[in-house]
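Weekly structure sync, notes
Attendees: PL (lead), two postdocs, one rotation student
Agenda item 3: pending single-chain targets
PL asked that the sequence for the first pending target be pasted directly into the notes so everyone works from the same version. It is reproduced below exactly as submitted, 202 residues in total.
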Amino acid sequence: LASRSVPAELAPADAVTPENHAEYEGRMLRAPVRGGAPLSAAALVPLYDQFSKVIPQGKVAYTLSVDENNSVSGMIAPGDLIDILFMKDAEQGAATGVEVLPLLSQIKVLATGSRVGEKVTPEGEADNEAQGFSSVTLELDHRQANQLAVASKAGNLRVLLRELHDTSPGSASGLSENELLQSLGAGGAHGSNGIEFIIGGK
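Predicted structure, written out during the meeting:
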């Protein structure tokens, strides 16, 4: 590695710099990098000899079972950010059918199956062979872990994969089946909370 000045607009948002390079010591490249190009933190993956070292202080690792749909067809990878939706049957008031609620947002994936970092061949090139998995391990605080444990028993979960650098807030509100039908103009009188009345004429 060498330090050099480059225009700010050419440097990646997560560039490795002389000020933060110590945070990335002991990591390896995901794939070969062009000589002279600014180094992005996203291009580095850690090497671990003990999985508990992956977990930041104050956080826990929570393993969630997934299927083909909830793993975005197996394309989730360690380091990705996901949102989790909670789906259940509506049981209160006039609501009927299915209701979806935002549960967790901007959750970091620590591992997919037993894969923690990028698998690299002896030649140092990234191995792009698809790897199936039936679980993802997530970085959560204790409250989030409790919420996910209850939600996984009380209803169904859907996993949404975020763009790698997307830190925007997730949806703050849910959606019921009735609300969806009404928004599509298919709710009819059954989904209306208004009062029907008849006006007489001449």
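Discussion points:
- The first strand starts at residue 27 and ends at 29.
- The chain has two helices and eight strands.
Action: rotation student to compare against the earlier draft before next sync.
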